[in-house]
């Protein structure tokens, strides 16, 4: 990095600003003791069904700020004590000080989830990694959570726009394609790398950037997570926590406008139905439209997300969440920007103007995405809880597209034409029970569950034909759509159904307050079949049979209450995306094994969280092309790759300063020589170094009350764009962002500026040297928010 950027980063740390809390909100504080009057430190304190929570300090005191006035259930718990709940009423301003007492229990109780408080960056717990309410400090895995406040401050409306705030994660291109710990996470190959509330079933197709209209927070679970979620990216999985109905009536409106004709609006209504407040509702509606810095690109999104929660009693609830997303786009796929190849085999990444595209103005994409999730939760006893989830997803895509074929010569490129219609589905059933118990001095949190996932497609009609060659600098699109009667060079016409049945058991053992051990074991069985629907299908059938055991072991040691040292061993396996006999299949499953060790600390009275981790991931049985004279489509399995590195992240709120920062080192290489490449070759789209920083600070000056300024930097070192060509290396880049906010009562206005230095940079490859994912040039976004009630 240039020294100027380091100095700027230092300056930002001391000068970035956040907006002040709304004066119409309430503050709650108190102190917790045991029956002998002794203070209880580290007790969990939350307002149920909200994202507001904290823990008690060394004096047993707690404080919750930024609470919307209304009625809440206050829940307090700590290991070794009986959980305590109390109905409270929070008014505006400072409320009465609470003196609470916990009684000792003979059972090892479940630790209550402590999530992010309003207007905070720091998140103290996540239920996703272990499917139990375990603080992140006691979780034997590297987990990072971006709170709703981070999403708001960044004005991030898609996963692509927030990915760079995660340590060690980056966007590869303008589609749903990401890099985590050196591995590519991409929907077609890793169907479950995107989770919703810890459940499989990605709402969006791989050609789309996942929208965040109904997302409260985003979690990154690093490393293979097959023990709970089956297949997924070896580098990690991303989990969306969606917004839930609330017991108090609220409504808000958000409007945004920005560069390239960007416009966005959303409404969010929530509250109870009736005085008893047993039925809660929430409705989120959003619409956006945008063009691009590239020619001819246009995109529109409509998003609707109604949800209901019915509270049978204090122990049982039923939740229904519906999502519908419609996208209409010209050039739905982001096929990247041109890269110039020099005669000596090197590349010029600044040669072609950024506005040019290989696609035609006649290309289009229409996508209908829908999901329905039904969740039943019942607390059978104080120690036994049952959860059952049904999730159904359907994706319908109709699109045409032009892609590059071959290399650029004399500033012109040959193109292919794709015409595709597909109808895809996923039906997921998940049921698990959580049981807390104690044997001697050892506490147990046992979870046992089963999953059934039926997924695939009922229609997959794909045609590839040769199209016209165009001049890159002066394109003529005449005749670019091939004759419908012309034979296809490649075609698919099939349906596919895959059934996944899995079961797992997990035990989290607590040996006093300092030692925690995690054991998990899962068994998965896949059974899939692809059936041709006509003679036009090239593969003429495919079958999948795979099964295996997935273990997980973790150890956490807390030498003091706010510091932990952990180690973990994780495995996962993914069925091959192709097992076609004509290609040489069936092939052995892809397997990932991770070894990780690290330390975590909640510092400065739990206001700042730090995590450092080191890991190695071994990935085996990767498919590579191995054509012969008799079979040009033949594939083969190679030994695999090794990814190892380390990460450091820092997140928290220090008075008026809020920060999220991190550094990641990764080295992802081939472990043997094959037709894929030579031993030691760098893996594609895997930079060795990444730095992320975002900070904000609230000015203490009365004359500037309500104003705030924020800024950040993202640095990515150079990266190989294609495994088979180690000379194809994208240059490193540094991107600077900033924001200015003003908030008063229910109103907030915010101006974000991205890529302030207007840096021309490529984010990753498109599996070739002709085009690559180009980062957005300088652009701005103005947002207005108003809380109706």
TrEMBL record:
<dbReference type="Pfam" id="PF00593">
    <property type="entry name" value="TonB_dep_Rec_b-barrel"/>
</dbReference>
<keyword id="KW-0813">Transport</keyword>
<dbReference type="InterPro" id="IPR012910">
    <property type="entry name" value="Plug_dom"/>
</dbReference>
<dbReference type="InterPro" id="IPR010105">
    <property type="entry name" value="TonB_sidphr_rcpt"/>
</dbReference>
<dbReference type="InterPro" id="IPR039426">
    <property type="entry name" value="TonB-dep_rcpt-like"/>
</dbReference>
<keyword id="KW-0406">Ion transport</keyword>
<keyword id="KW-0998">Cell outer membrane</keyword>
<dbReference type="InterPro" id="IPR000531">
    <property type="entry name" value="Beta-barrel_TonB"/>
</dbReference>
<feature type="domain" description="TonB-dependent receptor plug">
    <location>
        <begin position="136"/>
        <end position="237"/>
    </location>
</feature>
<keyword id="KW-0410">Iron transport</keyword>
<keyword id="KW-0472">Membrane</keyword>
<feature type="domain" description="TonB-dependent receptor-like beta-barrel">
    <location>
        <begin position="314"/>
        <end position="756"/>
    </location>
</feature>
<keyword id="KW-0732">Signal</keyword>
<comment type="similarity">
    <text>Belongs to the TonB-dependent receptor family.</text>
</comment>
<dbReference type="Pfam" id="PF07715">
    <property type="entry name" value="Plug"/>
</dbReference>
<dbReference type="Pfam" id="PF13715">
    <property type="entry name" value="CarbopepD_reg_2"/>
</dbReference>
<keyword id="KW-1134">Transmembrane beta strand</keyword>
<dbReference type="InterPro" id="IPR037066">
    <property type="entry name" value="Plug_dom_sf"/>
</dbReference>
<keyword id="KW-0675">Receptor</keyword>
<keyword id="KW-0812">Transmembrane</keyword>
<keyword id="KW-0798">TonB box</keyword>
<protein>
    <submittedName>
        <fullName>TonB-dependent receptor</fullName>
    </submittedName>
</protein>
<dbReference type="InterPro" id="IPR036942">
    <property type="entry name" value="Beta-barrel_TonB_sf"/>
</dbReference>
<feature type="signal peptide">
    <location>
        <begin position="1"/>
        <end position="21"/>
    </location>
</feature>
<keyword id="KW-0408">Iron</keyword>
<dbReference type="InterPro" id="IPR008969">
    <property type="entry name" value="CarboxyPept-like_regulatory"/>
</dbReference>
